[in-house]
Amino acid sequence: MQTASIDNADVIVACQYEIPVSWIRKKDLHILTSSIHTYTGDARFSVKHPESSDEWTLKIEYVQPRDAGIYECQVNTEPKMNLAFTLRVEAAQAKIMGQEDVYVKKGSTISLMCTVNVQSTPPSSVSWHHGGAVVDFDSPSVHHRGGVSLETEKTESGTTSRLLVTQARLSDSGNYTCIPSNANPASVMVHVLNGEHPAAMQHGGSCGVFCTVPIILLTGTTLLISNLLREEYEQIRVKSISTKKSNK
Q: Is the peptide bond before 79 cis (omega within 30 degrees of 0)?
């Protein structure tokens, strides 16, 4: 059986037998637990067996890449019975919602949302960098224009950090990186525009982190419809004039 886990998360695997089982790490044939007893100096490993239950659960806390491999639940019978689990450990990864390039209008608010997919051990901190420097929330220039704020929320599905930069300036353009304390960072490129209108921009309304505004498409469609209506009108007008002449 396949079991995937994120680095630093907890893993629980279980097998069901009516008699006591042993949990064995296959790569070094180390007996981790037998019945309700643990035989490893690594305190991250433990076994649970509720009373009047046939379930034997192996728990590994704060999983590390070195924990990857095959684990077997074995029953000491003749013939021996076993159930194998393959554990894969993936690095925790931050993710900034939206696309890799974000376009905002000068004077509007830059809104960036970073999520971290670690549930059991949420990051102790999440910092934001602009270019090579940490975003400064206390500088006088920041307070003068309305401020830069950071909102962090921890839920069952992970941690979310939202960076808000009000009254965006051209100097706010550049690379923004979300750096959690226990996960790989994520980056996004912000472009603050002075009057330009690209097809994709953030807006100050309720459309979210990233919005797509098909201005060119809508304009082209309107022009196309107008031209078609004009041509149809000209055809009707010409036909009407021809009819009048023939009647004369």
A: yes
Quote the CA–CA distance of 160 and 184 in Å, as a whole number.
Answer: 14
Nearest to 137, CA basis, from 153, 124, 151: 151
- pLDDT, residue 97, reads 94
| Residue 207: both structure tokens together | 């459309």
Closest by CA position to 24, among listed 64, 70, 81? 70
What tokens were used for 180?
């959690």
CB 83 within 8 A of CB 29: no
Q: What are phi and psi of 153, to 5 degrees?
A: -130, 130
Task: Give the pLDDT confidence of 153-178 residue by residue, as tens digits.
Answer: 887 777 899 999 999 999 999 999 99
**Residue 241: per-residue pLDDT:** 43
Task: Name the pTM for this structure.
Answer: 0.59
CA distances from 238 to 224, 232, 247 (A): 21, 10, 14
Report whether pLDDT(40) > 90. yes
Are the CB atoms for 88 and 2 separated by under 8 Å?
A: yes
- Residue 39, C-beta contacts closer than 8 angstroms, at least 6 positions apart: 31, 32, 33
Domains of the chain (ranges, CATH numbers): 2-87 (2.60.40.10), 94-193 (2.60.40.10)
Q: DSSP 3-state assignment of 225? A: helix
Task: Reply yes or no on whether the pLDDT at 222 is more than 50.
Answer: no
